[in-house]
Write the structure tokens for this entry.
Amino acid sequence: MSGALNNIYNNVSYALYLHSVEMARLQEQTITGSRINRPSDDPSCSYRVVTLNSQERSLGNYINNLSETVGTLELSSTVIQGIQSALTETKVLLTQVIGGIYNEETRERAAERINDTLEQVVSLANTKHIGQYLFGGNNTTSAPYLAERTNGEITGVTYQGSLENRDIEVASGIKSSAFHVGYDTFHSDDRSDPVFLGDTGAKTGTGTSNLRGDTWLTVTGSAGNYTLSIDDGLSTFNTDGTDTNLAITDSMTGKILYVDTTEINSTGVDLVSVPGTYDIFNTLVSIRDMLKNERELSGAQLRELQDNSLVALEEINELLVQAEVSVGSKIGFLDNLKESLKELKYNAEDEATLLQEADIAQIAIDLSRLEVLYQMSLSIAGRLMSVSLLDFLR
């Protein structure tokens, strides 16, 4: 008898306990609005939710990277457009000089304007964004362009940034560069043979010169004993006029110009132009110095140099147009990629929400049903537990 009563009591207690646990679970879901409050509520769905949440965070990081990258590229585009605008103004000014609008006095003022443009362009090329230089390639911590000055004026600009891009992961397996290699952006690299502009008779030698842009070749001496220099006399090279490939070195840069001296017939100064190697900085330096005419070139020589300067500016402008198109295409691609990642992130959020979100209407029905069952269970348990010895004796 004792054993039977114990069994009845245990079974009834356990059944009531299960009812109360289930009701507590439904009440918790009602309060939190979540169907899964702990992994044990639904291990399979819990694992899926954890995976979706991890995916959502990863996509969020990629979206943030994309936003920063696009912002950096947009600023780069603005800088390039600013340099293009400065270049256009220089072309207009130079065209007016060639057209005879400027006399010798006003050419000096034009040279000052070119000098201001040069300062502006160097400053733009050294633009920083969030503490990082835009045009230093993989080196974003130091200014990519170093200006060399004489008496306060820029006489040369040297690129000291990295020649490698700095790539940023903007999506799984996809990298993009937000910081440009300035050397590729502002320097042309399609070398042609040097062109000699002047009256000395010097020509291109058979060797491959490594000069870039414009260089002044000074010829002094007399027939049979000419002296040549490309660094304003700091280092000189003699010829008797029979050398077909005389190597002339710039002592400051180490650059070499190969000269055919066989047709040199007079002294003077020639501008040596190397098409396909111009950069915007040193081209502006050359134009400014040409307008100052401190070398006392003739009017014919000046016009020839001015025409050559327009060709150089056009070469650089084409380079900037290509850079602008490249940046614009990259921004468009990254914007589309960002929208795609946002869609994936929203989908992951929705799926995780659907898995976790409790159906309040269904919970209310289930809770009401369980309460009725619980009340019935209590009633039945009360009757079972009221069994007496007399009931067993009957």
